[in-house]
Amino acid sequence: MYRMMAATNKEKELIITNKRKILIVFNQRRKLIVMIFLVVLIIALLVAAFYNGLVVRKYIVRTDKLERDQRVRIALIADLHSHVYGKNQNHIADLIRRQEPDIIALAGDIVDDAVPVQGAELFLKAICDIAPVYYVTGNHEVWSGKVDEIKELFKRYGVVVLENSIDTVMINGGELIIGGVDDPDIVRYERGRYAFNWYEAMY
Q: Is position 161 within any domain?
């Protein structure tokens, strides 16, 4: 009887020990799964934050300011941040060319304050013969501290730099007025050189 009880106690201890081992292994696996999930999540967030791929979206805007049979196709481009897309920017230039735009509008941050300007210059070389190009500054051009030099660079490639100004262009038999204002951070950059009235610039 004593031997049977001793055996039973040993079996119970063995069962308890095995349960503890299983619990430890389960906890370790759970921690590993959680760690893997967190690493994957962090990588996904980093990819989303620093993704430099090209995204093309198409919109149709209807207006009674054009004649019924008039069409204006605008390629609106922003936030390239001096990134290079293919040799000599051929990839992005071909993509723009396939859209057959009447004008190209560069809506800021074509140049980056922390990346060499060469990528942006290659971009200008690649697109200047596709269609008339219009440009307004973004905050990163202003943050570079070289916004005046950047504007001159764009002008050298025939780009119309809109500095709180408008321009009139004839497209497909219709008159189109294009307006643009500098990025708001230009106020801090040029403070002391001139007073700036945003309402007057916009209206």
A: yes
